[in-house]
Design brief:
By secondary structure, the protein is of the alpha/beta class. The chain has ten helices and eight strands. The protein has an eight-stranded mixed sheet, sandwiched between helices. The mean pLDDT is 96.
């Protein structure tokens, strides 16, 4: 992988294709490899930039507490290092929260937004508390329980569940804990959705057990420039479960 040093924090990334810059941001608790099935389908239309968020994959572990704005700043710093002034940003699940934070914090850098299996709402109090508890468990006991619990919720496909479990087991406990706290602390992005004047592609599996499709429909209703693709039979990982349908939806951002 390529590496970018951003104020002492090294972010690993891959870059493929040509065309309009498109940053694909992975979700929790994964890394950039979740996009590998859509990359060959998108690389003739987009300059694809696939980072590992801080602490995940081959990127440096976070040195202190992490917020969504920190992940977003890393994306902005990566684009600056590549001398890319503006880009489309698309995120899966937690990566969608990062993409929304990027839009909020760096609006002049935005050409478009993709939300894959994500939402705009903040966590309710009980979910926040649960995330804080999960963060402590990850730091104390490692990521084994996270891998076993989350992998079966991401998809109904047994083969894909096993693959995702192994991917999660490779992640650092401090990265998992940092992401959980960042998700718990994230703001509600709903109030500024109506301001979006750029294209927004929303992709959601109808069998998603993590985030109900109604959350995606709510974003579509709030954003005049949005398209929504609902994928029959797909769970929380449509880029892996239905790569062609996901690709077709993201090409709305060309």
């Amino acid at each position: 992988m390529l590496k970018a040093n951003l104020k002492g924090n090294t972010i690993a990334y891959e870059r493929r294709g040509r065309g309009r810059p498109l940053v694909l941001i992975h979700g929790y608790p994964l890394d950039h490899t979740i996009w590998e099935m859509v990359v060959p389908l998108l690389e003739n239309d987009f300059d694809l930039i696939l980072p590992d968020l801080r602490g995940f994959g081959e990127s440096d572990a976070p040195k202190k507490g992490t917020r969504m704005s920190d992940y977003a700043a890393d994306v902005a710093g990566l684009l600056d290092s590549l001398k890319i002034e503006k880009a489309v940003v698309a995120g899966h699940s937690m990566g969608g929260y990062v993409a929304l934070a990027f839009v909020h914090d760096f609006p002049r850098k935005v050409l478009g937004l993709g939300l894959v299996s994500s939402q705009a709402l903040a966590d309710p109090p009980e979910r926040k508390a649960g995330r804080y508890q999960e963060a402590e468990q990850a730091l104390e006991h490692g990521v084994k329980e996270t891998a076993e619990t989350i992998s079966v919720k991401l998809t109904a496909d047994p083969g894909l569940q096993a693959r995702l479990k192994q991917l999660i087991l490779r992640q650092r406990p401090e990265a998992v804990a940092g992401a959980l706290r960042a998700m718990a602390d994230r703001p509600d992005s709903t109030p500024f959705l109506a301001e979006f004047a750029f294209p927004v592609a929303i992709v959601h599996g109808l069998a998603d057990q993590m985030i109900p499709v109604e959350r995606a429909r709510a974003v579509r209703a709030a954003v005049k420039t949005a398209s929504l693709t609902e994928i029959e039979g797909a769970g929380h990982m449509p880029m892996m479960e239905a790569p062609q349908a996901t690709t077709d939806a993201l090409k709305f951002l060309k």
